[in-house]
UniProtKB/TrEMBL annotation:
InterPro entries: P-loop_NTPase, Sulfotransferase_dom
Name under which the protein is recorded: Sulfotransferase
Domain Sulfotransferase: 38-288
Signal peptide residue numbers: none
Family membership: Belongs to the sulfotransferase 1 family.
EC number(s) per entry: 2.8.2.-
Keyword Ribonucleoprotein included in the entry's annotation: no
Organism for this UniProt entry: Myripristis murdjan
Pfam families xref list: Sulfotransfer_1
Taxonomic path: Eukaryota, Metazoa, Chordata, Craniata, Vertebrata
Length: 296
């Protein structure tokens, strides 16, 4: 689309205590009333935690053998619809979920745990939550805001970082999100809480853990095939995973599959920003057993 046809960037506002934009509240009642099925798998994350990576892994685990044409012809955001999303003149995430022909259905959501539609709990669905350390998440989110017209304008890095710390970004506070889901894990046994840093460290091991959670047992050969297919370089050049088919994203400004590293924050944070961040982090993250690694 030429730039004139794109709508202005959405504005942030407070929605039940969480910063949101219209893209994620306009279809609220329909999203809340979604009918989950017992075999649905919800992939829940705070933005930029590795959602696309884990979505591709799950899609390959479930459908890589039975319908390989799926991976080569349908973009990831159609195979694993983003339930919360609603944009003008496009099918809503909720509609895409309703129309999914697969079983199980793989469904993506960035909702904080208190906003998850009740049907997922009633049906006792399996949920895969992916978390990523706050500093790398902030950096990745900043670059995502630069390239995606459906995100508020991120401004300069230094001011974006302050907004991130305050939770004034889409889907609200990272701190509340990762903690809320971590607490949920203590009572919902069908929640697998995984970390981006672990995936980077040993993708094969994390695929094995996912499989034992999901009750899958791919052959060693199949598991290796998947591990190779989801390596950073392969997903970056794969048009069905790199978001090159989405007009609202300007890959010339920044790639969606951008760097894929643990510790890229060191290239963005000044020493003073890092110290301020760490001090605030300690306060917000005290009284939790949840631990992150900012380097490996
Ligand atoms: P960076 O911006 O730090 O590179 P999400 O899918 O939740 O929006 O997360 C996007 C982040 O995951 C981006 O981080 C992207 O590069 C990274 N990512 C996507 N696929 C990856 C892969 N196969 N290996 C490593 N990182 C990956």
């Amino acid at each position: 689309l030429p730039w004139m046809e794109l709508p202005p960037r959405p504005k942030l506002f407070d929605f039940h205590g969480v910063s949101m934009t219209k893209c994620f509240t306009d279809n609220w009642d329909n999203v809340q009333n979604v009918k989950a099925r017992p075999d649905d798998i919800l992939i829940a994350t705070y933005p930029k935690a590795g959602t696309t990576w884990v979505s591709q892994i799950l899609d390959l685990l479930y459908f890589g053998q039975t319908s390989p044409e799926r991976q080569s012809s349908i973009p990831i955001h159609m195979r694993v619809p983003f339930l919360d999303l609603c944009r003008p003149s496009q099918p809503t995430g909720k509609d895409l979920v309703d129309q999914l022909p697969t079983s199980p259905r793989l469904i993506k959501s960035h909702l904080p745990v208190q906003f998850v539609p009740k049907s997922f709990w009633e049906q006792n669905c399996r949920i895969v939550y992916v978390a990523r350390n706050a500093k790398d998440t902030a950096v990745s989110y900043f670059h995502f805001g630069r390239m995606n017209m459906f995100q508020p304008e991120p401004g300069e890095w230094s001011s974006f970082l302050q907004h991130f710390i305050q939770g004034e970004v889409v889907f609200g506070s990272w701190y509340d999100h990762v903690r809320g889901w971590w607490e949920k894990k203590q009572t919902h046994s069908k929640l697998h809480y995984m970390f981006y840093e672990d995936l980077i460290e040993d993708t094969g091991r994390e695929i094995d853990r996912l499989c034992s959670f999901l009750g899958l047992s791919p052959s060693a050969e199949e598991r290796e095939r998947i591990r190779g297919a989801v390596q950073f370089d392969n997903m970056k050049k794969n048009k069905m995973t790199n978001y090159s088919t989405v007009p609202s994203m300007d890959l010339k400004v920044s790639s969606f599959i951008r760097k894929g590293k643990v510790g890229d924050w060191k290239n963005h944070f000044t020493v003073a920003q890092s110290e301020q961040f760490d001090e605030d982090y300690k306060k917000k993250m005290k009284n939790t057993t949840l631990q992150f690694r900012t380097e490996i």
